[in-house]
């Protein structure tokens, strides 16, 4: 037998998502009058939709050219990975690693963790909930540096521009890349981690 757990659900309490007041569950907050919910409304479908959209956008973001280099009348389009290769060839190893990690590895890791959390919740895999919750905290921590993804693209453009007599122009991949970064950031915030622990707590009732 497990002891009774003190949760907002079994005590009919709700934490206002606007002002933070903990109160008896009702339709509106007694302090700020915002709509009252025990969990973020539509958290799961919103997160699924945003994460899938971000994943789809990452494909053209990595397959299409992200910048066009115009030099001596000729134009060449480079994808993100081609930019990484460019800096490796020029022995700019630190820049190449930063671009590869921030623009390819981190976005896919964040989405992988989000999808794992959604599947754990969907399949009610209680044993994995503590590990997934920690992974989500990691995603939210590195979310503070999400704009690094966009910064490294600017860095890549600047390095090419100043390293040779060339004009650097944005290419089609810029829009889906920026959109994927933004959607991933939003998806991380829309997912309510408490939905995982609700499943975990149900085991003890």
Total number of beta strands: 5
Chain oligomer state: single chain
Mean pLDDT rating: 81
Rg on CA atoms, Å = 22 Å
Going across the biggest sheet, name each strand in turn.
Answer: 4-3-5
Overall spatial form: elongated
Which band does the percent of strand residues land in? 5-15%
Helix content: 55-70%
Number of helices: 7
Structural summary, described in words:
This protein has 205 residues and is mainly alpha-helical. The chain folds into two domains: 1-38, no CATH class; 42-202. Helix content is 58%, strand content 10%. The chain has helices at 43-63, 80-89, 93-123, 129-142, 148-163, 174-190, 194-202; strands at 13-15, 22-24, 67-71, 74-78, 167-170. The chain has a three-stranded antiparallel beta sheet with strand order 4-3-5. A two-stranded antiparallel ribbon has the order 1-2.
Throw out a few tags for this protein.
three-stranded antiparallel sheet, 205 residues, two-stranded antiparallel sheet, 7 helices, mainly alpha, elongated, 2 domains
SSE topology sketch:
Elements: E1 13-15, E2 22-24, H1 43-63, E3 67-71, E4 74-78, H2 80-89, H3 93-123, H4 129-142, H5 148-163, E5 167-170, H6 174-190, H7 194-202
Antiparallel strand pairs: 1-2, 3-4, 3-5
Helix pairs in contact: 1-3, 1-6, 2-3, 3-4, 3-5, 3-6
Characterize this entry briefly:
This protein has 205 residues and is mainly α. It has seven helices and five strands; from the N terminus they run ββαββααααβαα. A hairpin with a 2-residue loop joins β3 and β4 (74-78).
